[in-house]
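Hi U.,

Before I forget, here's the chain from the pilot set. I'm dumping it here mostly so it's searchable later in email.
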Amino acid sequence: MGNRVGDWGDVAPLVPLAFWLKAREEVAKVNPGCIWLSESVEPEFILDLRSRGMTNLSDSEIFQAFDMCYDYDIHKFFRQYLKGGGPAWPLHRRYQHAGIYLS
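Structure:
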């Protein structure tokens, strides 16, 4: 798997879920305490790739195989908040975007 600060699924959403489920099963045989970390991707990217018939997992799909997910998909909204561009509360609405998190 991906990068070496431990291992995490770098751009894991672009890999089929069946792979991650099998990988997790196999890794658990030798390292049952392994913590699985994935990144998320922006909703527009998910929709774009899916419209072209490509694999792109939503957060809810990622959480079927991973323990944690760092939410890259809200990065630009969080930065806006940090720069005084508005309250943090509206960020939750991002997860309602186009129903893609309901897979």
